[in-house]
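re: that chain from earlier
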Amino acid sequence: MIDLEPIHVALRDRSYDIEVGVDTLGRIGECLAPLLRSKKVAIITDPVVDRLYGARVRDSLTGAGFSLSQVVVPQGEEHKSLRELGRVHEELAGARLERSSTLVALGGGVIGDLTGFAGATFLRGIDVVQVPTTLLAQVDSSIGGKTGVNLRAGKNLVGAFHQPRFVLADVETLRSLSERELRAGIAEVVKYGVILSAELFSLLEDDADRILALDREILAEVVHRCATAKARVVMEDEREGGLRAILNFGHTLGHAVEAMTGYRRFLHGEAVAIGMAFAARLSAARYGFPVADADRVEALLKRFGLPITIPGELNPGDLARAVETDKKRQEDRVKFVCVEEIGKTRFELLSTQEIEESLRAI
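^ sequence. v structure.
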């Protein structure tokens, strides 16, 4: 039996627990009964996740005495939009939700981000519970309260910080992912190893085969380690005023690659993998990151079947300008997360010209 301690995110009146386990979806009602202010709950999910897990979650919640409504959002990053958010708001109003009601985000990162932002804005803020069903969401996007939707100009440009009330990560749901979705989620796991834990990075190198084989024990350990690391960063810097920006490693370029390919060619984790490979090479070329360690980063990404090369048709100048729209820019420069050694990062402010030059060189 896999028994992992709940992870407590201590943020004063916004504190909450993260529970990582195996085959725990059926416990959601039991977990929420003592936590929530009201028995009125709306589940927000997508058609695929609803078919796989909706009945189990609804049965658990109704068995615990909750009154349910549900909103189904089409699958895909293109639906993480202001238009879809407006539709969700209208359906929540039609279900007569109140300020004491709770939204349950059942799905991956798109559902989690959209539901979180709906919770932050509907009735000026109601509680949200995250039930992530993808690896990317379990280790990253469900934790920390960053919510939002995309604009044509870039990813997550409209959003709010809105911490969840509770997070339940059942690694058994990872078995329903396609191989591509699983590998894309592993990109975020590699990120934690590069920026925060040389020990985790080595574990990934040693146990890649077990992870890809969906070994329950190693999956639960990896998700728990990553969630613990994210919680630690969020507790120190809830609103990304300093340390938390290290979690953007690989994302600054990755978001630009996603935007320039219409959010259709790459999954989020695949674009982040490309961004991490670039950031590792940039760090080696300019900031003293050992070339051998940059090789290790690329080798591990490739071991997990992730892309590391920027598509040749993306013009470096256009890509650099797309990076410039990033939320982390300061005046005419972008805060880039670079690496000094595996497990240790540094920030560099780069101009559009410097980014373009590095893209051409690397």
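The chain has a mean pLDDT of 95.
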